[in-house]
What does this fold into?
Amino acid sequence: MPRPPRLSPDAVTAALAGLPLWSGDAGGLRRSVELPSFRDAVAAIVAIADVAEELDHHPDVDLRWRTLHLVLVSQSEGGVTELDLQLARRIDALLPG
It folds into this structure.
């Protein structure tokens, strides 16, 4: 299945206006979130993994005790694509703001 093309910097900036919990640019989207406990953070990773598998698009996840640091980028396209925006929206539905 063909992958969506890389978005322009302006398109990413416009998309970030609708994703207030995320920062970044055309090179990648970033979000950090602190969960109540280590177990909650691990459970969040499992929930994100389920969505990532469903979309066949996988984030970079860094777990530091109870804080998740997430990075979304379509490596194959060299930047942010619509898949990254979709995954960001799905992650926002799973995690507290």
Summary: The two ends are 33 Å apart (CA to CA). The helical segments are 9-17, 38-55, 82-94. The beta strands are 23-25, 28-34, 60-64, 67-72. Residues 9-94 form a domain with the Gyrase A; domain 2 fold (CATH 3.30.1360.20).
